[in-house]
Amino acid sequence: MINYQLKTFEKGDKTTTIGGAVKSLGPLLRDEVRPIVISLVAVIVNSGANLLSPFIIAYIIDKYIATKDFHGVLMYSGILAVIYLLGLVAAYVQTKVMGGVGRRVLFKLRNRIFTKLQELPVAFFNANKAGDLISRINSDTDKLNQFFSQALLQFFGNIFLMFGAGAFLLLLNVRLGAASLAPALIVIVITQLLSTWINRTSRTSLQALGGMSAEIQESLANFKVVVAFNRLDYFRVKFDSANKENYSASVKAGVASNILTPIYGVASNAAQIVMLAYGIVLIASGNLTVGFLIGFLLYVNNFYTPLRQLASVWSSLQLALASLDRISEVLGLGSDIKVIESGKKAPPSAAAAVLSFDRVFFSYTDDKEVLRDVSFALEKGKTYALVGPTGGGKTTTASLMARLYDPSMGTVYLGGRDIRSYEAGERAGKIGFILQEPFLFSGTVGENILYGNEEYGSYSNEKLLGVLEARGLGGLLARFEKGLDTNVGASDSISLGQKQLVAFIRAVLRAPELLILDEATANIDTVTEQLLEEILRKLPKETTKVIIAHRLNTIENADDIFFVNAGTVVHAGSFAHALEMLMSGKRAS
Fold first, then answer.
1. CB 456, CB 450: distance < 8 Å
2. How far from chain centre, in Å, is Cα 253?
3. In the chain, fewer beta carbons within 10 Å around the N or the C end?
4. How high is the pLDDT of residue 375?
5. Which residues contact 205 (CB under 8 A, 6 or more apart)?
6. Across the strands, what pairs with 377?
7. What is the DSSP annotation of 223-245?
8. How far apart are CA 292 and CA 62, in angstroms?
9. 3 state SS of 511
10. Any alpha helices (H) in 173-289, and if so which ranges?
11. pLDDT at position 335, please?
């Protein structure tokens, strides 16, 4: 059984490298090669303009200002203006183009994550909080977008400018250039030593933000329960704890992200002092001119200014890599609910049944077994009831029937085939499942009824109403103010009982071979319940029904009853025997 719990980053965890990040995002960048190349060219042009201007300024000072040739000063000033204008245009192009790249990558990445989440089994969502997943889709991907659209080309531009300025310094005067670059070597060593710590604090901060989002989502999603039990103080304390953890982690991440900036600033100031002191000595000895000393000073600024900017860019890079770690963790997951070949031949009892369990074992976690060596078969057209004490395993058994989970051991057969050999769409067409807690999507009642229904999916409300009337389902729409056009919003626009009616109509309309009703009438009045029972009796005679219910009248007319408790599914026989087992099971629990 796969462990779907997303990990919490620890001190020793390895992070994604820059090369690994490029490889990971390669499929998303495949269509962005042309704009990236354009941006890189713009970066080179902009950096080239910044590298050429100090040399021209030094030349102007020594050649024209020193000799008071103002015509030459004006001419070269015009050339400088053209170079600066060219650099400005290049900077605009790189910002605009890479901004588009970042947005498109963000769009595709969020789609990719959401698609991956849809591929994962129910067990994944049981193991992880929705708030943390939302944080990974929204916040973490946005950190990557900020890096792509703002910091990435600034990173490459600064690197290009630094190496160019360093090369000019060494070419103009090796000794003075080496003295000016010496503080940078110390900074590089410090950066390497601090990078792991910066990345770790960034990941911890993102994890804490995800935890706080999860607390917000949980408290808001269950706000009615919180108010009903007057536990506002409880969730306030929980949120305060999560908020404090996020605050502490974000402060540490902020310190880590900005600690390089003053270090780089000190290195820049030290380089300028060394260069000026040594430069004055060289001027006094006649080995350097004033113009070239000023040019040196500009090149030192061109080297250390991007170095200081790299401090924030480097922090942004570490945050982006930490975000990519969290995103990659989701994208790297695979589902254990996979379609297989037909598998082993079904036993005779399974071949004749609509659904059967063959020595099925199941556990949600490795340390607690929910079902143990369960075998039974369901015949076509019959009605079965699953009874047992709360927590006995009824809903788990039904979930295995619908393949929301796979057994730990054993096989579930559907129509004589291993249920794992069915494609998801084919399996959903054969099995209808009315959940204990129905969920409806924002839209109308009609849209929710047609959700996932390929046969009637394109029907208008008028045609759909005709089908519902023919199936005996039209009377249920009287419970809705505007019928099929009744709005279903995120708020409580319709009651829980009405939601169960929509779920009922949605499942019955499919006319499935197997219909599972998990407490499907728990929130419905007695009159409506009788109407639903009448509709169920009108289903095709081949339809097999499995009913999970605590109301005894709901299971009284079942053809067969199974008692589910303590990991076993036992044939109960008569209603009276099932009632006796249920009462003794409750006393035992």
1. yes
2. 22
3. C
4. 92
5. 246, 249, 250, 252, 253
6. 356
7. HHHHHHTT-HHHHHHHHHHHHHH
8. 8
9. coil
10. 174-221, 223-228, 232-258, 260-284
11. 78
> What does residue 486 show for φ and ψ, rounded to 5 degrees?
-60, 130
Distance set, CA 320 to CA 83, 160, 210, 327 (Å): 34, 21, 15, 10
Hey, how many other C-beta atoms are within 10 angstroms of the C-beta on 294? 17
Tokens of 317: 């890079």
- In one-letter notation, the amino acid at residue 62 is D
Q: Say whether 413 sits in a helix, a strand or coil.
A: strand
CATH of domain 25-331: 1.20.1560.10
CATH architecture of the domain covering 348-588: 3-Layer(aba) Sandwich (3.40)
Q: How many CB atoms lie within 10 A of CB 71?
A: 8
Model pLDDT, residue 86: 92
Rounded CA-CA distance 507/511 in Å is 7
Q: What pLDDT was estimated at residue 19?
A: 58
Which DSSP string corresponds to 280-336? HHHHHTTSS-HHHHHHHHHHHHHHHHHHHHHHHHHHHHHHHHHHHHHHHHHHT---S
pLDDT at residue 229, rounded to an integer: 64
Token pair, residue 376, equals 């039974």
Burial environment of residue 180 by CB neighbours within 10 A (0 to 12, 13 to 18, 19 or more): buried
Q: What is the pTM of this model?
A: 0.66
3-class state of residue 355 by DSSP:
strand
**According to the model, what pLDDT value does residue 447 have?**
87
Question: Which of 555, 551, 558, 516 lies closest to 397 in space, CA to CA?
Answer: 516
Q: Is the dihedral of CA 239, 242, 247, 253 positive or negative?
A: negative
- Say how far residue 312 (Cα) sits from the centre of its chain: 26
pLDDT along the chain (589 residues), means of 10: 60 55 69 85 87 84 80 86 91 85 83 85 79 80 76 76 85 83 82 76 79 74 67 77 85 77 79 81 79 81 78 71 80 81 72 88 82 91 86 87 90 90 87 80 86 81 87 82 81 73 84 85 70 77 84 75 87 75 58
CA distance 55 to 289: 13
- Rounded-to-10 torsion of CA 99, 104, 106, 111: 170
51 and 84 in contact (C-beta within 8 Å)? no
Q: How far apart are CA 255 and CA 264, in angstroms?
A: 15
Residue 429 has what pLDDT? Answer: 85
Q: What is residue 588's predicted lDDT score, i.e. its pLDDT?
A: 44
Query: Do residues 277 and 256 touch, judged by C-beta distance below 8 A?
Result: no
Return all residues near 469 (Cβ < 8 A) that are at least 6 apart: none
Q: Where are the domains of the chain?
A: 25-331, 348-588
User: Is beta strand 443-444 parallel, antiparallel or unpaired with respect to 544-548?
Assistant: unpaired
